[in-house]
Amino acid sequence: EFESASAPFVVGSGGDQESVATELSQYDASKHSPVFYGHMVAKIPVDTSVIDDFKPEHSHPAFLGHAVVHKFIRPLSPPTSSTIPLPDPKTCSPIEYLEHYIFPVLLPGMFELLKAAKAEKCFERKWTKFNACDFLTEWLFNRNPKRSDEEFTQFFEIPFVKSWLVIYPRAPIALSLLLSDEEAAIIIQSFWRGYQVRCMPEVHELREWQKELREEKEGYSKKISEFWTKQACKVGVDMETDTPEEFTGVFLGNLEERMESEKEMKADDKLSLKLDFCLQI
């Protein structure tokens, strides 16, 4: 009964009947515990008490002094492709075409795809940089029998991929997905250390002083530009009202020559020139 319920053995592998050390006995409810049903059990002779080391959370009390024996089943070798004639791809049914031409090539790639997805932690995170279609395309392209003698080609170096991306470019991947855990940890830790330093009273006071200094410089340049605007307006009004040259000469001076020279000067020279002119006025 046990032999009929067990998996078939390969011919020549040696069953229970061929082993001289195996004693078979049919299951009998009056002699055996129901726990033994469906198992191969061997009685182990021991010199000490079997109750001393017994742990009920690991085994059933009926197995005291016995051990469960498992059969070694030699795996059946799958039929080779040479033994099965392939159907004609042009006349066969869609199911036959999938089973004989698509799945033998695609299934190994899917297996490698799952391994790569696990390595990229796709089953642990919601968003990752891993693209399953890109990986499968690269894997199938490099394992093409027609390219057996060529070197490995990256996904973005494949010819048809390059031509496709020229027409339909992709958006850049977010930096948070490109960084590894170690690189992201370094960036977060450096930001946190900088934040703690900026919260120190001495550093905070220095930053406030630098902010006021920048605002003061910006306000100073704004005042100078407003002054020059007012002077230009005054010059236009004085020319229309025929103001005496003695009054307007103070403001005009060599204004045209100064403006031409200012174009050739640097920013620092322009600022100093404006300051000198303001002091003269």
Summary of the model, kept short:
This is IQ domain-containing protein K. It comes from Callorhinchus milii (Ghost shark). With 281 residues, the protein is mainly α.
Description:
- This protein is mainly alpha-helical and 281 residues long.
- It has three domains: 1-77, no CATH class; 94-178, no CATH class; 215-280, no CATH class.
- The protein has ten helices and two strands.
- It has helices at 2-5, 94-119, 132-142, 159-167, 175-178, 181-198, 201-240, 245-252, 255-264, 267-280, and strands at 40-43, 66-69.
- A two-stranded antiparallel ribbon has the order 1-2.
- Helix 2 (94-119) packs across helix 3.
Q: What would you call the shape?
A: flat
Provide the residue-averaged pLDDT: 74
Radius of gyration: 44 Å
Main structural class: mainly alpha
The run of helices and strands is HEEHHHHHHHHH
Distance between the termini: 120 Å
**Number of separate helices:** 10
Please identify the oligomeric state: single chain
Overall tally of structural domains:
3
Please give the share of residues in helix.
40-55%
Strand order of the largest sheet: 1-2
Number of strands: 2
Strand coverage percent: under 5%
- pLDDT < 50 runs, ≥5 residues: 1-20, 242-253, 277-281
